[in-house]
Amino acid sequence: AEFGVVMMLFLVGLELEPRMLWAMKAKLLGLGGLQVCGTAAVVMAVAMALGQPWSVALAIGLIFALSSTAIVLQTLNEKGLMKSDGGQASFQVLLFQDIAVIPMLALIPLLAMPDLMDPVVPLDSHVVESLAPDSSGHAPAETQPHDAGENAGHADTDPAWVETIPGWQRALITIGAIAAVVVGGSLLTRPVFRFIAIAKLRELFTATALMMVIGIALLMTLVGLSPALGTFLAGVVLANSEYRHELESDIDPFKGLLLGLFFMTVGAGIDFGLLWNNIAGILALTLGLIALKTAVLLVLARIFGVAGSDKWLFALGLAQAGEFGFVLLGFTVANQVIPASVADQLLLVVALSMLLTPALFIAYERLILPRMNEATRADDEIDDEAPIIIAGHGRFGGIVNRMLLSAGHKTVVLDHSSAQLEMLRAFDIKVFFGDASRPDLLHAAGIHNAKMLVVAIDDRHQSLELVRHVTQHHPHVYIVARALNRNHVYELYAAGARDIIRDTFDSSVRAGRSALQALGAHPFVAERQAQGFVRQDKRAMRAMAELYDPDIPTHENLPYIERARELMAEQEAAMRGGKSVFGTRVDRGWSPPVGVDDDETIARTTR
Asked: What is the pTM (predicted TM-score) of this model?
């Protein structure tokens, strides 16, 4: 199960080029460093207020300062939030936390003191008497932290041979192991993988990638370091390698399987007897930790300029404890830093806080995002009117706006991205901040006098509502609507739009035309093929849109299904025969170049 975390950090490292790490050093050290130090200090103060010695409180603070890299990165990627300001800030903090585990592992043994293991006040005053440490300073054998920490392979202390050598020699061995990973990754992996690539055996490449990850993890374990951090370092070293993507694709299936196994061991390691006996206290500690970390992260978000809904994504996303908490808890007990009775409770807090993480993301999406979308900034006062209103000024609406402006037309542009607006205004492009789907904002923009509305927003639901509203209340306005895909076209058509553009269709047709030319077709023939395909597709789209019913599931709409089958058969016949779709050079106005027999060439290149 431990290799799930090991492989995850190896893949994270592969995504991080050293140049990118250097470029983000300010936020990496500033935001990440302040988060770890600030959270550790606040948790330490609370633990001391609950009666823990300073050394135990410090260890608890370090453990709870970490967040779950596995859960947060996976969730951000699945929800498409990684590129947002909140996602990037979360990634930088998680990256610093993963690196910070190394000095934490070095610091924790120094916190062990002869009198530390005397009985101390538990974090939860309701802990049953049987869990109190015995006279030797250890909890009874049945209450030692187990399962979650040990099942994940994290509770081991330094190997015996490392403990027998002086501290300066241990430091040299540690530095040597790290240097071996860096130098080996830089100098040896490329020739090895190049040699394997010549063999053209994918299985051998996969086996070598696994061998490398396991070997590095074993080396780190032998010198008393975290295997996950060692493979992370190896991933960073290999981030510039030409074999990076191959390594990612080979390791990723194993990562997913073993990471799932890791979280199964976390759940299996929960001591439900202890949890039920102290349910109120454990829940209070868990919710208190989440609230405390959220408060610290909100303060840091304000300092570092993470605003609007992004600051809540940042704060709620990192409010849990992390999987490395199991690593450090097992390590602290093995080094007699935290009493076993306290560590048992902390294991439950870590596990429950991770279990609540999906609920925190749901709260962000359902409660916070609708109210704070992008920022709490008020809509701009629109002091301009134009016959053309453009809703959305991204990669789609921006090109439309530039074309219209260059042709001498006047436009009013509405966009709900404050970051996008600041960038555009730097280039003297006038854009108003606001949600174009709101009727009052449309009225302020002059929709009652407008001739055209260009719907270029990328939110499917909002674009449908906007088209439906304008069609019903302002039928004089000509609508040009952006569609994300074929089904979106049908939905917009049902809402009243008649001029609908798929945002990737034209570029895909151009790519197909280029592919035909690369395969030997004459440019004239390739262009005519492309034009014919467009005409055929538009005809099919119009026919299908007439039969589409948003109230009936597509697979239950029998007229829609029958017409789709007919059109597919017609298109296949047309592509094979050529003439029925593409017409003759006379009726389409084409004049083929000298030496190109139009009909014969088309028939030959389409068979």
From this structure: 0.53
